[in-house]
Hints:
12 strands; seven-stranded mixed β-sheet; alpha+beta; three-stranded antiparallel β-sheet
Amino acid sequence: MRAAVMYGAGDVRVEGRLAPQIVEPTDAVVRTVAACVCGSDLWPCRSMPATDTGRPMGHEFLGVVEETGTDVRGLKAGDLVVAPFTYSGNTCDYCAKGLHISCRGGGRYGFDGVDGGQGEDVRVPYADGTLVKLPVAADSALLPSLLALSDAMTTGHHGAVTAGVGRGDAVLVVGDGAVGEQLLPDVLDGTITPGRVFDRTFTLDQTPDAYRAMADRQVLKALITP
Length: 226
């Protein structure tokens, strides 16, 4: 598969990598339909030390489940899902408190042998506790707004402003890795359109250009379509 990999500050490449496979029985392999470059991706793009191995990039994505491990019960091949910006088991004491980002068994995409979201496929650990099934088709015009629920609505004030979210509206808790399922109905019926935060679309091969455009403030948030 092809995926974006960062080798150091300002050095983002799209290259061929081994396609992900099921490693743990709680894993799922997801074919990416939409991803993006987040503002937090620019931090390592400005300061990451050079490395020979590189780091797979991207933590906001949605896609279609291609395969599940034997312990995955809530998902099946063909389901369209959105992923929070971290993966979590949703069973530990921190998850019970809504602190999924601190999950005792969780982690971040692009580290510890887990793929990044800016690629053609992603192995998602703890699929049942992490992925949220979406009630739309993979070619739905709502995909950008549904993608925005994975992180932009959590960590980006710009996302809230652009989407028209105001005082008193239900929003995600900053630092919580869970997708804002409470916002799904509002996206589905058009009450809010957080996808407007994506003001330019790039192909996967153009991902390095997307990083440069965001770093140069030419783009607010770049949508990636593998």
